[in-house]
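Hey, resending since the last one bounced:
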Amino acid sequence: MTEPTAPLKGKKILVTGGTGQVARPVAESLAEHNEVWCLGRFGAPGVERELAARGITTWRWDMDDLRGDGLRGVPEDFTHVIHSAVRRGEDGDFNAAVEVNAVAAGRLMTHCRTAEAFLFVSTGALYARQTLDHPYTETDPVDGVADWLPAYPVGKIATEGAVRAFARVLDLPTTIARLNIAYGPGGYGGVPMLYYKRMLAGEPIPVPLDGQNWCSLLHTDDLVAQVPALWRAATTPARLVNWGGDEPVGITDCIRHMEALTGVEAKLVPSEVTRENLPVRSHAAQGADRTVHGRLARRHPPHPRKPVPRARQPVRRGNSMQTASLPRTPTGAQPGPAVPDGTSPETDTAPRLPGRSAHLDLIQRAYRAFGSRDVAALLETLAPDVEWIHPEGMAAYGLGGTKHGHAGVREFLSHVPNVLGGMRLQPEEFVQSGDRVVVFGTRQVTSRRGRTETLSFVHSWTLSGGKAVRMEDIFDTAAFHRLIES
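The structure tokens again:
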């Protein structure tokens, strides 16, 4: 059990990504006894007003703007900084993810060079995958391979490098915290809520072909309580820590638990590509705070389940796939100590499965082309006889049914502006099984009268001969109808 720590009081704190799952509850909690500023784009209607009601000062800052004057007018006398904002790279642009994230971190650290402590929120997704239940430590190798969102960990690795450099150059005490899975109230609820939404929608949830993914869930309350400890742990050179809960949790077990709690069935689909969630070992602030033991179990009492058998887990060796047997770690096992002050050697010894990257690269090219409104580039990813399918419920607006071939796709795209004022796709997860790629994401849709809403989508792509031969768009047509008629 964590010993209570004295709350920060009378400090001036800067928070980026202050509308997100991680940083918003931190900002709101600290604002009770401190002066808190939040930087961000604040795209969600009313969010600035909500933060202001909590006594938080907001400042519009767009990381993608590389001109260098985004922080002009922002005070420089902050005592503490938590940098959580990120360009995730949903568009698949690796170079943009690297440049935008690294440059923004460097400028922010330079602007706040007199701070007592700087906290950069990184990710555990950058570790080189080992066995499914391997508890990752800060000294494990990284490779930045995450097929569900390829550019995301690459951007984080690049930003970690920039943060390490600026911490030394500026002599700015810094902690790099590789966050596992945060969940709880605020934001979108975290990964468990994403799975629950899929359960409600009857959507497939990809799981490993054998065994299950594991993670170190961290509840919002614990996350908020640990931020001051991470600031106290800041050093020069930067201190690297894993940031997660104390208990490894099986993702499949978690989903089954949600089934038991809610009565909603989960459609688990074995797949080669899943959203890998890595259990971690860390004493992020040893000597100051210890993470909370058993908090998840107390919030959600464990449900009965059968013992987890030994699993057959694919192990990468050279360019082939071999199979090795490994014991499962039971949910609730306590991870042991780890050394938090080492650096992570970066290696790339884990090649992708044959054929996987080609399919994913093609689909990501399609989304980049759509994002840049480059119809010719989009058509290059599609077979000449492609099937372009949308729900029949959109037929009343000329956007339903199946269009055939490049001419059909052009016809569909040219008609969209007659119905909608604008649309921006944000693919969030790519799941591949053979020649099929399923993409989960959201889109910001604007009506002709200027009303904007964020709506979920599922795109099912089928590929053959290096081209997409079928694309089916699955979404809530009733929500689209309400927006169009608003």
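The longest helix spans residues 151-170.

Sorry for the duplicate.
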